[in-house]
Amino acid sequence: MLYWLLYPFRESSAFFNLFGYITFRAAGATLTAMLISFLFGGRIIGYLRSHQIGQEVRTDGPASHLKKQGTPTMGGLIILVSVLVPVLLWGRLNSTALIVVLVSTVWMGLIGLLDDYLKVVRHSSKGLIGRYKLAGQVVLGIVLGIWLILSPPQPGAEKVDLSIIPSVRTVDLDNEAQEITIRSTETTVPFFKSIRLDLGIFYVLLVILVLTGTSNAVNLTDGLDGLATGISMISILTFGALAYFLGHANFAQYLQFSHLPGVGEIFVFAGSAVGACLGFLWYNSNPAEVFMGDTGSLALGGAIGSMAVVTRNELLLVLVGGIFVAEALSVIIQVGYFKKTGKRVFRMAPIHHHFELLGWPEGKIVVRFWIIAVILALLALSTFKIR
After folding, report:
1. Would 223 be classed as within a structural domain?
2. Is 342 among the domain residues?
3. How deeply is 387 buried, as exposed, middle or buried, from its count of CB atoms within 10 A (0-12, 13-18, 19+)?
4. How far apart are CA 330 and CA 328, in angstroms?
C-alpha cells in the first residue's frame, strides 16, 4: 500500500524513490513486524492466559516438560498478525508470487487455528480430525498447483501441454545472452543448472506434497521452546534471498537461472516473516511464555513450502529444511518400525525428544539445531554456484 501511495511522489522528493527498492521495503516490513509483535504480543498472551487457553503436555514425554502445563498456546496469532499487516503495508500486491505465499500462509494458519480452538477451547482431545486437516491442506495444494500451471510466471513462456508425462529437459546455456525460460510445470534440479524436471499435470501433486509435507514437518518440530521459530526463520530468510536474486534479471542471468518477474516481492514477505519470528521469539525463548500451537507451525510451514514452489526450487527444500525433514522422518521410522517389530529406533520421536531423553538440555538442543539449519541454508545457497 505504501508503494502505491508514496512512490508516485518520487519526482518531488528523492526520499520517496526509496519505496521503489525491494530491499528498503523488506527492511521496513521486518521492523514493522517486530514492532507489532512487541506491541500486541503481550496483550495476546494476557488474553490467552486469562481465558485459560493453555497447552496440554504429554505425560509420556520428558519429565522436564510437565512444568510447561498450562502455558498459553495459539500464540501463532501473534505471528499471523505480524506477518499480514506489514506485507499489506510494504508489499506490491500485483505480484502473483506474493499473493500465493500470503494466501498459503493465512490458509494454513486458519487450519491450525481451528485445530487449536477445538483442542484447547472446546477440549476435544484430538482437535481437528486428521483427515479433515489433511483435506484442507490438499485443497490448497490443488488450487495453487492449477493456478501456477495456468498462470506461467514468465512472459512468453511456452504453452503448457497438460497431457504430457513427466520428462527431463536440458536447457541450452551455450549462448549466455539468451533468456533462460522455465515452463510452468517444471522444477529445477539442485546441483544441475541445465536440467529441468517437467512433471506435466503431475506438477500439482508436487505442490500438494510440498505444502502438506512442509506444514506438517514444521508442526512436528514445534516441541521445544524456540526450536520451530528459529529454524523457520532461517528457512524463510534463505528462500527470501533466493527469491530476490531470481526476481532480479541481472542476478538471474548471472546465476544462469530463469528470471521470474514479480518473485522478488517475496523478499518483502520474508522480511515480514523474519520480523514476526524474531518478535515471537522474544516470548517463545526458553522458558517460553507462549507456544505458537498449530496456528503458527502450520502457517510457517505453508509459508516455507509456498516460497519453495513459487521460486521453482521445490527439491531444494529438502536441503534448506533438512531439520524439518529429519524430524518428520524420525516419526515415520519410529511408527513404522514399532508397528513391525514392537520396538523403537529412537527413545522418543520426533528426534528432538530423543536427544532430551539422552540428557541434552533443552536450550543446547535448540541452539545446535539452529546451527545445523544455518549450515544447511548456506549449503543450499552455495548450490547456485556449485552447479
Report:
1. yes
2. no
3. middle
4. 5
pLDDT tens, position by position, 58-89: 666 676 676 778 788 899 999 999 999 999 99
Which of 61-75, 125-139, 249-263 is predicted with the least confidence, judged by mean pLDDT?
61-75
Q: Which residue has the cell 493456478?
A: 147
- In which region does residue 246 sit, left (phi positive, over 0), alpha (psi from -120 to 50) or beta (all else)? alpha
Number of domains the chain contains: 1
Domain that holds residue 176: 2-6+21-314
pLDDT single digits (tens) 197-252: 888 889 999 999 999 999 999 999 998 999 999 999 999 999 999 999 999 988 88
Q: How far is CA 92 from CA 1, 20, 86, 212, 263, in A?
A: 7, 10, 11, 27, 11
Contacts with 171 (C-beta within 8 Å, 6 or more apart), sequence order? 180, 193, 194, 195, 196
Half-sphere exposure of 207 (CA within 13 A, CB side): 30
Whether residue 322 is contained in a domain is answered as: no
The CA–CA distances, whole Å, from 202 to 28, 48, 151, 206, 318 equal 39, 43, 16, 7, 19
Strands 192-198 and 186-189: antiparallel
Q: Using omega within 30 degrees of 0 as the cis cutoff, is the peptide bond preceding 361 cis? A: no
- Who contacts 331 (Cβ-Cβ below 8 Å, separation ≥6)? 220, 349, 350
Number of CB atoms found within 10 A of residue 253's CB: 16
**In angstroms, how far is CA 268 from the centroid of its own chain?**
14
Tell whether 380 is covered by a domain.
no
Cβ contacts of residue 225 below 8 Å, gap of 6+?
Answer: 284, 285, 286, 287, 288, 362, 363, 366
The grid cell for 212 is: 502438506
